[in-house]
């Protein structure tokens, strides 16, 4: 679905940004407290040419603008850490990129000063969950095979398409993990 000024969504300058905003809008429609979701990004023109039935099923018109089409993958395995799961993925050449949407709790940089020392992951998670300045955020991060990156962040407290922050370097660790799914080895 294209983003335009008429529906209040920001205009996207390039196909990767448009794909990230499309995924963010899709995730927004599902509501909060959702599991992480993984998407393959495919070239829309190639999809129409090579897989016309799938393109039709996805609602891609013959005159659709060139760009990237997100295709949601199977549900991520419950209980498996995200980094371990991503390390198991390898994409076929036809896939131009991938994207992930995931919800997390975030703290402002000012909260770092009050962080207790020596917490394990479980205790740290509990501490963040109870912190009065915590913010729930949905992060949508995408990478292309050629190294391009884009992200969209949506705070639960400001849950509208006009308050989505985008940028290529917003979630560098997750972008690196996604980029590694394209490395051969």
Short overview:
By secondary structure, the chain is of the alpha+beta class.
Explain how this protein is built.
The protein has 185 residues and is α+β, with helices and mostly antiparallel strands. It has one domain. Helix content is 28%, strand content 23%. It has a six-stranded antiparallel sheet with strand order 2-1-3-4-5-6. A hairpin with a 4-residue loop joins β4 and β5. The longest helix is centred in the N-terminal third of the chain and has 16 residues. The relative contact order is 0.19. The N terminus is likely disordered.
Topology:
Elements: H1 15-30, E1 37-43, H2 44-50, H3 52-57, E2 68-72, H4 82-86, E3 97-106, H5 121-130, E4 135-144, E5 149-155, E6 165-167, H6 172-179
Antiparallel strand pairs: 1-2, 1-3, 3-4, 4-5, 5-6
SS-derived structural category: alpha+beta
Describe the main β-sheet briefly.
6 strands, antiparallel
Low-confidence stretches: 1-10
Fraction in helix: 25-40%
The neighbouring-strand order within the major sheet is: 2-1-3-4-5-6
* Cα shape: globular
Keywords, please?
6 helices; 185 residues; alpha+beta; 28% helix; 6 strands; disordered N terminus; globular; 6-stranded antiparallel β-sheet
């Amino acid at each position: 679905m294209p983003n335009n000024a008429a529906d209040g969504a920001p205009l996207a300058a390039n196909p990767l940004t448009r794909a990230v905003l499309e995924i963010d809008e899709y995730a927004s429609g599902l509501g909060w407290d959702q599991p992480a979701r993984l998407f393959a990004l495919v070239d829309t023109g190639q999809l129409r040419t090579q897989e016309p039935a799938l393109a039709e099923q996805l609602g891609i018109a013959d005159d659709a603008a060139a760009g990237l089409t997100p295709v949601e993958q199977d549900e991520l395995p419950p209980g498996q850490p995200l980094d371990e799961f991503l390390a198991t993925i390898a994409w076929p050449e036809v896939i131009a990129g991938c994207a992930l949407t995931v919800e997390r709790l975030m703290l402002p940089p000012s909260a770092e000063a009050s962080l207790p020392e020596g917490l394990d992951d479980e205790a740290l998670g509990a501490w963040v969950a109870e912190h009065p300045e915590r913010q729930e955020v949905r992060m949508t991060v995408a990478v292309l095979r050629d190294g391009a990156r884009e992200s969209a962040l949506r705070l639960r407290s400001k849950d509208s398409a006009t308050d989505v922050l985008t940028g290529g370097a917003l979630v560098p660790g997750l972008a690196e993990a996604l980029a590694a799914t394209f490395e051969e080895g």
